[in-house]
Amino acid sequence: MRPCSVPAAAAAACLALPLVLSGCHRPSSGPPPSVSTPPAPREKATVYVVNPKAKGSDDPLIPRTVKLVTPQTPVRAAVDALLAAPGSPMPKGVALRGVTLDNGVATLDFSESPIDETGGEGHQTDALSALGRTLGQFPEIKSYQIQVKGKPVTTFGEFTTDGPIPVTRAAEAKTTP
Question: What is the pTM of this model?
Answer without folding.
Answer: 0.68
